[in-house]
Specification:
Shape: globular
Radius of gyration: 23 Å
Number of domains: 3
Mean pLDDT: 80
Largest sheet: 7 strands, mixed
Low-confidence stretches: 1-20, 43-48, 60-64, 380-394
Structural class: alpha+beta
Helix content: 25-40%
Distance between the termini: 52 Å
Strand order of the largest sheet: 1-2-6-7-5-4-3
């Protein structure tokens, strides 16, 4: 096994809070045959029940059903993540169903025999005192951005709100054309864009346009294909990313997003739109922390007593078609602001990504009750607690 040097990242110049959150990534070149099942891994405390299996498969990002969680890479104990298995299956052309008929060691050994000498580049995450995590795999010859490379480009381009999760770096930047401040109804906004950079060799960097609501520094990120720009990496990945960040403008994208926010101020939210966002927030524990009940209460004040208004015990008791025709006591603009409040200030990275996906879908698609409100008034000031238990206006 040949290993690249392990390098710690220095990011205090970008965001002092991010320095303690970033792990160390190790990049190793090895054969797939160097992967073995960890025979020392503890066995499950009890046999999984049907309910356990159903809950695991229903969870967002559930790991493959049959692929093992604990492996050995050249004798080093590693925890195999979903990102690892997904990238390995894609590269080798099989899926986890093969483990139903053959042992993991046998599968990996046979693949290694057919691809003898080709090798793979493994990204291993070290940090927090836990077992190292096995992230994406890629070809050693493919261009990629390491954690240090990506941080250098982000630092040079004034990146803010730098954060990391499962092999991906995220940051916020000002477009090349400037902040482009403008006013919509009672609120003021500035233009920003969000950068997502895979630092484990799995995938390309992507740029998503976003609007920053100045009243509470909420960033509404449009994570949909229509609002996304992929960054293709050439022979010099750091140069390609630097050029993309320094020249990104996308005036048409910002204009379209601005128009959708203006329309959101004039559109009542439907019960279906309320239900879809509430399902994401509920599954994510309303952002977690001691203030989660306060956020849930703020949500109820914003949407109104829907059960009492429509005489139902659950929104799901109304058919989806009818839910799209019935209004809540808030507008789509309120839902977008609430979603961006939780995503920006409270949610862990996984939940924030799902919320940003909901925001992107809501902006790109036509609202259920598009243009149903005739006027634009001051929107209700809702207060939710931050992680430090300080009030933040939504």
């Amino acid at each position: 096994m040949v290993s690249f040097p392990v390098r710690a990242s220095s990011v205090a110049a970008v965001d002092p809070r991010a320095a303690c959150a970033l792990p160390t990534l190790q990049y190793l070149t090895a054969d797939i045959g160097d992967l073995k099942v960890d025979g020392t891994a503890p066995a499950p405390a009890r046999r999984a029940t049907r309910l356990d299996t159903r809950a695991r498969l229903a969870a967002p990002g559930a790991r493959p059903r049959l692929a093992p969680r604990s492996l050995l890479l050249g004798g080093m104990q590693v925890a195999a993540t979903d990102r690892f298995w997904t990238s390995l299956f894609r590269r080798c052309g099989f899926n986890d169903a093969v483990f139903r008929y053959f042992s993991t060691d046998e599968v990996l050994q046979r693949v290694s025999e057919r691809d003898s000498g080709s090798g793979l580049r493994f990204a291993v995450e070290h940090g927090n005192g836990a077992r190292p995590k096995l992230l994406g795999v890629s070809s050693p010859r493919a261009a990629m951005l390491t954690l240090d490379d990506a941080m250098g480009v982000i630092r040079a381009n004034g990146g803010e709100q730098v954060r990391y999760t499962d092999g991906r770096l995220y940051s916020t930047h000002v477009p090349a054309d400037g902040i482009g401040a403008f006013k919509l109804g009672p609120d003021r906004f500035e233009q920003r864009f969000s950068l997502e950079v895979p630092v484990d060799g799995q995938g390309m960097p992507a740029i998503h346009i976003m609007l920053l609501r100045l009243i509470c520094q909420n960033g509404a990120v449009g994570m949909q294909r229509a609002l996304r720009s992929d960054v293709r990496l050439g022979e010099r990945p750091d140069h390609s990313l630097d050029r993309a960040l320094s020249s990104f403008g996308n005036a048409d994208g910002f204009s379209a997003m601005r128009q959708r926010f203006e329309s959101a101020q004039r559109s009542w939210a439907s019960l279906e739109e309320v239900r879809s966002l509430e399902a994401i927030l509920s599954h994510g524990g309303w952002g977690g922390g001691d203030a989660a009940p306060a956020r849930r209460a703020a949500w109820g004040r914003m949407t109104g007593d829907l059960h009492g208004i429509y005489g139902i015990t659950a929104i799901e008791g109304i058919s989806p078609k009818r839910r799209r025709l019935l209004p809540a006591r808030c507008r789509m603009y309120d839902l977008l602001n609430f979603a961006s409040e939780v995503s920006t200030h409270h949610a862990p990275p996984g939940l924030a990504r799902r919320i940003d996906g909901w925001i992107g879908t809501a902006i790109v698609d036509e609202f259920d009750l598009e243009g149903s409100a005739k006027d634009v008034s001051d929107f209700e000031a809702l207060f939710t607690e931050t992680k430090n238990d300080h009030a933040s206006r939504n």
